[in-house]
Amino acid sequence: MNTLFLGIVIFLIVLAVFDLVVGVSNDAVNFLNSAIGARVARYRTIVIIAAIGVFAGAALSNGMMDVARHGIMTPQYFSFYAVMCVFLAVMVTDVVLLDVFNTLGMPTSTTVSMVFELLGGTFAIALLQILHGATAADGTLLSLGDLLNTEKAISVILSIFLSVAIAFALGTLVQWAARLVFTFTYRVNGRTTDQTGKMGNLVASSLKIGIFGGLSVTAIVWFLLINGLKSSSLMTPELKEMVNQNTWWIIGGGIVVFSILMTLLSAMKLPVLKFVVLLGTFALAMAFAGNDLVNFVGVPLTGLEAYQDYTDNGHGDAHNFMMRSLMDSAHTPAPYLIAAGVVMVLALVFSKKAQNVVKTSVDLSRQDEGDEMFGSSGVARTLVRTSRSIANSIAAMIPRSMARWIDSRFNADAAVLKQGAAFDEIRAAVNLVLAGALVALGTSLKLPLSTTYVTFMVAMGASLADRAWSRESAVFRITGMLSVIGGWFITAGVAFILCFLVCTILYYGAFVAMAAAIMLAIFLLVRSHLRYGKSNKGNEADKLFTQILHAGDKTECWALLRKHVDYTTSQHLRQVSENYVALTNAFFYEDYRTLRRTTVLTESQRKDIKRQRRKQIIALRRIDPVLSVEKGTWYFLIINSLAQMVYCLKRMGEPCREHVGNNFSPVPSSYANEFLVVRNEIVHLFNRALSAESTTLIREDAAKLQSTLSSYRQRIIHDIQTKHLNIESMTVFLNLVQESQELLSALRHTMRGKSKFEKS
Prior knowledge:
By secondary structure, the protein is an all-alpha fold. The protein has helices spanning 2-37, 43-59, 66-71, 80-104, 110-131, 144-147, 150-182, 202-226, 237-245, 247-267, 272-313, 334-350, 352-355, 360-365, 378-397, 400-409, 425-444, 451-465, 474-535, 540-550, 554-588, 592-620, 625-661, 669-689, 695-722, 727-758, and strands at residues 187-188, 191-192.
């Protein structure tokens, strides 16, 4: 029996290592995005600084382990067997959630999943114990409030979700005030961010940057090096008492001293803002590790301690030995924390996911135009209209002179960002200082705030205050923000329900169910790793678009745009050809599964064409205006013709799918075989379009095939009228022939537009 429990504990520890690697890889963007988005240093430098912060935070995060011990459950009423069921269910559910959400491409949060998994598993065991008439030592019946640490659980849940609103509001207010002071054009490091080269007053600029830097550094030092360390062994009782008695003197003195120091450094033309951003990166990485380490190793280490207590004192009775030892605060041995820190650092430095750190939050918060990852939604459109209405009402009450002055402070057009930067160092500093302070404050209160929630919402609030959400992009970015937030709420619900079910199965299924759960987790881990290896090949179109955004010369931008259009056009032609073959074959061979899959792929391609259109329109604005007008007509002919091809496939696929799904009679083989001959010629024509063959010849051959299909269509209509054919199947077949003609027509237009667009 003890050996079986030991195997479970070992499995939990192995999963903890996996969680550390995956968690750091996925969440690295939380503390890297601001420094990388502002391009304050090379990627390697930023990662080294973050790695030091991660290691320090992990090594000093002992206090947060109490969340896994007695933050949700009341372990004195739980047997060792029940606790192991909960912990195994939490870790297995975590693996399943990670696999499902990664497959669907939906955002998730390790903090939310851990808390709600613990809540779901504990709730399941609590209900089972109540149903079996569980009693306390004095014989009184236990209630749900006795078995669940409801007060702590509610405070944890409220802190997680309230942090969303608080982080967004603070990000908006602080960034608005910072931009009002600095504007987008300010003197820094002896240079200017103004397009005209206008330099601000040295004394005024140094003073503003000095005070801003002083406030930022003081906040970082206070929340992380003092408040964040108060539960560590480095903070003696005497030192803690001294800090508590002189809090305001320390904060006030820090602001004065650091402000003077930063002002002098700025006057000496040293990179004060760069220092603040890098220090903020270190601080947020440290806060992340200190706050989120419990998400990855809290449950396994608590399970290990429970196992040790059971082997020493349980006498082999797993069902009746109560886990009173878990009521005490955690005293995790330093080697465990240091080992976890080493794993997190290695994951940060060597993980491919962490190296590919261009993440959603940078894209949604950038200052300039770019690829909008999300479409628009009805809720987002309503919010935009309502917000504009409220903003106009407020603006009407502000004196015009003040409104003009405020607008002048937010003139982003006059600013020049660093090459490849998504926003400037002012916004990066606000993002890091605020997020680090909020997470460190939650850690000091032993509340596991979601680092993802806090950093993302601070970044969103700051970008909103910076007026980075224009009328052209606001609806897309709000949709993206709502999608991310929606993913978090879905994570909470799914984690609770799934862990509730898994824990119930484990409790009744005993070691058979536990072994099956472990095998499932291993299978999902291996599959997820293999899937990521296949998908992590990069996208040439995205790389080209990034180069277009960073191109400084209009001629270079035009050359890159031609490559981008040529690449995406070829990709879509190839995809149309493949889907056309799959669809027609599936219809004639009555393969409903392939028809359904092709319908999904076609819809996905439609969305991708829409996304590429927006990106390429942005690129057209960056080339010479005269050339843009000349080539724009032919570009729209290309993109609209590609869209028409996809609509042809949709109009083919839906009737075919319905026909086969209803098990209606198939098309007679004589008609199908005759059509497939023409179909193969159409596919061959698409293959020729992908080569360097003359577009004129392709268009001529497409016209001939159109004529052939037209004659064939007339014969089908005649046969329907004169022969005893199945009307339903022949009507769908006739639609297939007609849409094939439209497909050829769209191909002709595409090739015409392509030849004109690429012509020098």
